[in-house]
């Protein structure tokens, strides 16, 4: 598992976006390491789009806390899941995330695997997924890592990470 002080792996992730007038642009590939360059990012991950805790508490919490997180120095908030970019876009639209949270696809689970934060949920019909966690990243370096125990939602929520960000100032 990735640790504090480690550099994020240089992986390609995907983001779907709509251009002017609602025309599809994407999915667009990007280098996570390049996106982190000279920036502070908060990356949170969850097992899957449209799942109960993720849809009712995790993502909405970050949308609500986004103004405070940005005011505290976070440049961008990324929500990552082992889903494709089309699903992540549709999920973000259904949750009305706007520009507060960027919905990012780790469709093949390469980022999740590189971090050592995957889990096999095949017994529940979900296949390979991400664990629930949050990372505070500064210029590509992990400054804080909060991984949830199975079935829990206690340390990767927006308010906990907001407290961490504020304490680092």
From TrEMBL:
Class of the enzyme per the UniProt entry, highest EC level: oxidoreductase
Catalytic site positions: 54 (cysteine sulfenic acid (-soh) intermediate)
GO molecular function, one term: thioredoxin peroxidase activity
Keyword Oxidoreductase listed: yes
UniProt-listed Pfam families: Redoxin (PF08534)
Highest taxon above the source species: Bacteria
Keyword field contains Oxidoreductase: yes
PROSITE patterns referenced in this protein's UniProt entry, alphabetically: THIOREDOXIN_2
Family statement: Belongs to the peroxiredoxin family. Prx5 subfamily.
Function as written in the Swiss-Prot or TrEMBL entry: Thiol-specific peroxidase that catalyzes the reduction of hydrogen peroxide and organic hydroperoxides to water and alcohols, respectively. Plays a role in cell protection against oxidative stress by detoxifying peroxides.
Protein name as catalogued: Glutathione-dependent peroxiredoxin
Organism: Pseudomonas parafulva
Classification lineage: Bacteria, Pseudomonadati, Pseudomonadota, Gammaproteobacteria, Pseudomonadales
